[in-house]
Amino acid sequence: MAAPREITIECLNGHWVLNKDLTSEPDPILKLVRTISAISTTNPKLTIPYCLQQKVSWLLRKAFGLATIYLHISQYQTPASETTEPSTHIDFNQTGSAGLAPTEEKRILDWEIRDHQDYFFGEVKARSEFVHGAVDANGIVRPEFEFQTANANEHIKKFMRGETEVDGSKSAGFIVKDWSGIVEEGPGLWVHTFERNDKSGWTAEQIWGFEMLGDLRYFSRRGVVMTTKGQYLCGRIVFDFVSA
C-alpha cells in the first residue's frame, strides 16, 4: 500500500512491510557485509570454525530473502532541557517470518555517534540527522549533505541524491513538495544516516525520503555499502504502508 499524504519524513509512525518487488535485490549487499564479518572475526581461539561461520551467514541471508519483513516505526520528539536541545527520535522494531529473530533500532537525529548491535550486522557505530535540499544546475531540488562514504564517486553521489537509478539511468528522484521546516535551511527534508563496523571494515550510508514509483508514493531508503577495499554496492529499500 502506498504511503498516505499525511505520512511524511517528520511523521513515519505506523506499521510497514518491506516491498520486495520494488526493493533492490538484497542478497549481494548482505553477502558483501556478512562475508566480511565472518572473515574479520576468524580467530584460531574461536570454537566456531570458519566454514561454519560462512554457513551461518548463508542461512541468515537465505532466511532474509524468504521472509516477510515487518516494521513498526515510532517517531517522537523529546523536549529541550537546560543542557540539551529538543531532539527527534525514530524507533524501529523489526520482525519477520521464516524464523528471523526480531531486531530493534533506535535513532536520534542529532548527528551524535552511538553504538548499536544486532545479530545480523554486528557492532556498529551509527549517526543520523535531518538534512535539507539545494537546487541543482537543472533547477531540481536534491538532498544536500556531506558524504561520509570514503571516496564516494559520481555514480554513488548521483544515486544517493536521486538523480539516477542503480544502473545509472535517469531517475525522477525524491518527492520534494511534501516538506516542512524552516525555509531558510533549504527546501525539502530528508534523513541522512551513516554506520560503520570497525571490526568488519564496512560502512553504510543512507538517505530516506519519499519517491513516486509507478503512480504511487512510497517511503524509500537509498543507500550504499562500501568495504575498506573500495568495493561498493548501491541499492534502494522500499516499504509499503500498512496502518497507523
UniProtKB/TrEMBL annotation:
UniProt-listed InterPro entries: Pericyclase_pydY-like
Entry superkingdom: Eukaryota
Name of the protein: Uncharacterized protein
Organism in which the protein naturally occurs: Penicillium desertorum
